[in-house]
Amino acid sequence: MSQQINLISPLLLKKRYAFGLREMALGLGVILAGALAWGGVIYYQAGVLEARAAQQESLQATAQQELDQLNAGAMRPPSALLAARVKAIQAQVAQREVLLASITRTIEHASAGFSPRMRALAQSDTEGVWLNGFTLAPGHVALKGSALNAGLLTTYMDRLGEQAAFSGTQFSGLDAALAQASGEGAASPGAQPDHIDFSLYSGRLEKPADKGGAHAQ
Predict the structure, then answer these.
(1) How far apart are CA 194 and CA 178, in angstroms?
(2) Which of its termini does the chain have fewer beta carbons within 10 Å around, N or C?
(3) Does a structural domain hold residue 102?
């Protein structure tokens, strides 16, 4: 019978560690790579923040510069030349306003009783009646024209009296006479038919005759 005896001490056997040099080196590499990546992120964020801070500082500097310019302008005494120009322009505007008001009053005074009457004459147009001349003056009206018959002349006078410019005007004189084309003129194409020449008068014309009135032929 034989028996084997182990003479090797367990203490002399080579021990295997759970983390060897290779595992430790790999772990350190992973940690180093993570640290480098995190450092890169931090560096990028820091650069963005620095750029924003620089932009804000630039805007603040610009705003401060504009504020300083405004303060300097506010503290600057007013220009005597500019003030003199403003006063001169204000004086010119005032003179023009006075002149415009004077012209307006003159036109209104000169046209009183004239333009409305002219408009009334145009609005009283009656077919078969035509004016050959008229005189319009304060307190005086003279109309000279022709009508194909007396009925049309009456219609014309009625329409003229309906106009506000001639409201209350009473014609104190009326001259009417029958006019006939005779001789060679009667046969010509341009000869006027038989008609009545009339003249209407209202009021008296003051002297001088052309003062404040209008004449037309």
Answers:
(1) 7
(2) N
(3) no
